Please model this.
Amino acid sequence: MGDGRAQQSRAVEALRHTAPFTTLSEIELEALAATVMERSYSRTQQIHCREEGGDGLLVFDRGAARLFRTSPDGTDVTLGTFRPGDLEGVSAAARSGRTSSVLEATSDGTVVYVLARHEVYGVLGNHPHILFALLDLLGARLAQVHARLESMVLYSARTRLAHELADLALHDAARRVDDTHEQLAARIGSTQAEVTRGLCAFRADRLIESTPRRHGLTVLEPDRLAAYR
Model:
């Protein structure tokens, strides 16, 4: 019983800080939190496979994840990334459908709350303004995918790596990036070898720094990386 109350309390906090549920009252948040399922995932564990048909919304509470598709040549192409406070499944809540995109945890201890589709419809029925917030989220998600695909066409792997590092640095106060070479390669749709060459070049230009035998790196010049061409 205590575990159930603790989970509901955590779910309330997660919903409170997730658009579009920030406008709900405390009573409404508690009622909605009582319907969600809490799930925890390890790094590389699949969270949501569209081929099996998605249902409802995923509210990210802890950790991180990426949405990707695998090209015919076997290359994983990241379409979007997710962090605490993000919402996934916006399009699936509005329509049924099947794609081959996969959602995968990129850090251990990734926690999501699953909100069933009929619960989403119930919230929309009582708060129609939330529909506009969901449409805004969907528009932002499509813009993110468009930007990534545009980057794949217009920029080299090294430029994409520079931009990805600049973006990742924004989400850490110390500008630390703890992704492995494999994870970075998956993010930019390239190879580990290309990532290694790019990081060596950035290190030589004092754009990043890393400590031997220590995992991860520190971004020194995020603005220069963001403007890298």
Summary: Residues 55 and 95 are 9 Å apart (CA to CA). The chain has two domains: 37-153, 156-226. The chain is about 45% helix and 20% strand.
